[in-house]
Fold each of these.
Amino acid sequence: MVDGMTGSETLFSLASGFALAGKVRKITPLGDGLINDTWLVATDRDKGVLQRINGAVFPRPAWNMANLRRVIAHLEDGKERDIRLPKPIPTRGGADWLEERGGFWRMLEYIEGITLKGVDSRETARSLGWSLGRLHALLADLDPAGFHDTLPGFHVTSAYLSEFDRALSDWRGLACAELSAAVSRIEAHRGRAEVLERADLPRRIVHGDPKLDNVIFDVSRRRPLAWVDLDTLKPGSVLYDIGDCVRAACGKGGRLDMELAAALLSGWHEAARRFLTAVEIDLVPHAVWLLPFELGLRFLTDFLSGNRYFRVDDPEENLRRAQDQLALARDVDSRFGRLSRIWREISATPGK
Ligand code: GN1
Ligand code: MG
């Protein structure tokens, strides 16, 4: 979007401040992120991704960039390079970002490929799961102590519940049937929301936002090449990643596509099995339920608080997003036994 703050002249001058080869020719909005603003920058010889980092969510860009640089250096150290992450392109003065016009600006490498709008085959689901597991496996030997927490409280469901309680008690808008239904869905399941927090889960470096549109596929649509959107690359549990990946790739219209979910989980397991612990394996089905529940809770809280976190086109959008996620969580809950059986079978499969 090119608004008053980011008119095209401003964008051209900002983009020219980064060390891309050639002269900036074209700048177009990229992706559907709800937090940062993103543009594709084309010069006569090169391409790059320009982003304005949302400073209200990520107030310390130095931390985001340090985490990213550390992971990239680690991947380059290793022999296996089958998953790429976009590298930062420094400013002409050698900095990792610019602070200008009330925002933090950075440029990242553009990785050629396509993003998928939906997963339509088991093969694609499996390769998506495999690439997430592969990323986890490549990060598994990093010490989380060397990383910054770029977004404290991210995926702490109990904290989201407290925020929701406050927002609901301060809510002065008109009650409506949709809101009451969403609130009762949260109330009905809040007792289960803290199971992952109470478990003794290993802390690892995770992606944090492994949605389908954060994976670049090759043009044949089969092979995932790279993971992007790395501001939440930080210490956490892989369970939130796998739950979020299944949610985003296999949840449609408030229903989980069980076949796609099984394929995704088996791809992930194949790549991640060598480091997963028993407690992690045990709680995978719970994570598949929790992530839509948690995102529904976050959307609903944002709706009640005046839509200050997630970008919206109209004031009810976060309510509709919450309904959709909460319907998905309910669907997973209603078929939890089947999901658990499928996962038990997958996780009992010996490695090849
Ligand atoms: C946000 O901006 P985007 O779309 O990459 C959010 C994720 C949510 C997602 C829902 C830092 O990610 O947690 O799953 O929206 N990221 C942050 O669409 O809160
Ligand atoms: Mg994101």
Note: The radius of gyration is 20 Å.
Amino acid sequence: MRIFSGIQPTGRKHIGNYIGAIRGYLEGQERADPAIYCIVDLHATSVAYDPEALPGYVLDTTAMLLAAGLDPGRCILFRQSDVREHTELTWLLCSVTPCGDLQRMHQFKDKSEREQELVRTSLFLYPVLQAADILLYRSDEVPVGDDQRQHIELAREIARRFNSTYGEVLVEPKHVIPEVGARIMDLQDPSTKMSTSYGTDAGLIYIDDEPDDIRRKLARAETDSGREVVRGPDKPGISNLIEVMSVTRGAAPEDIEREFEGEGYGTFKNAVAEDVVGLLAPVRERYRELRPDEDGLERMLAEGAERARAIATPMLAEVRDVMGIGPKGAASPAVQRRG
Ligand code: TYM
């Protein structure tokens, strides 16, 4: 069983990424064969970005994932642009991707509305590159947060259409979205998801935030009128914090509500803050140790890329072969056998 997921090297990662996705990566590396995790630097070029800073952001994200517990002995961790097969497969998959499907993607609509100067073609093709990431490894499961649901559904659709057009080569992946914590909301505006692209600093808890910053941000988190610690549609702020605590304690949200019955928001927010500090402090400390060793991180990514390529190269050869690209029969022996 193969697991694949990708994460953008955009700025600092936040507790939404940790709770919604990175926890799933950790769980995945224990049971997949193999678990493959990719830092998607090509996706980062689909909106305005700083080319000088991008290589450093890739190392930030690499060190953060290692600090959180990813182990290159138990998973493949690599940089997307190191494996050129991703871009070639993107183009080939465009041949079975209707424009209309791309126009309907929520993230394309949101991001293109916010782009000030240029809506890049790469923003439009973003979901096809994401589908290529996944399909190149015949991935069975894709651990992600709720905001990626539509992209994974599109990847399934692309695989289906490809297989019915050219022959059964691709595997339809399924998303693995956690039951609790799949959509952590901004602390200042709990009607929108926590995101480095749109949120303010006060609304986000970064994985490498200092404990006092975490305490301050949670103390100032937007809460709703009333004082009961219970979930509800009119209580998005408290509901969000209950989800966070539910993850830090590994307890059901109902148990948290019961525990804090009659306590009021202040006590509850302090308790959430201490839990989050406890969860993130070891990751922050390890990150500080790992991040300075840039040569070591680059070496590790290069090894990861080599292992990824060993899967991607024969797979792409099969895709090219069934699509009639290149000389006949150039693909792996598996394809020649099938033919
Ligand atoms: P990215 O880098 O925005 O986010 C990485 C992961 O974090 C999850 N996430 C959240 N989960 C809960 N609450 C939140 N507020 C929150 N914000 C982000 C995301 O769902 C994601 O799982 N398009 C992807 C990267 C990608 C990818 C892939 C993912 C490229 N290729 C192939 C899976 C498979 C993205 O931008 O993630």
Note: The first strand starts at residue 3 and ends at 7.
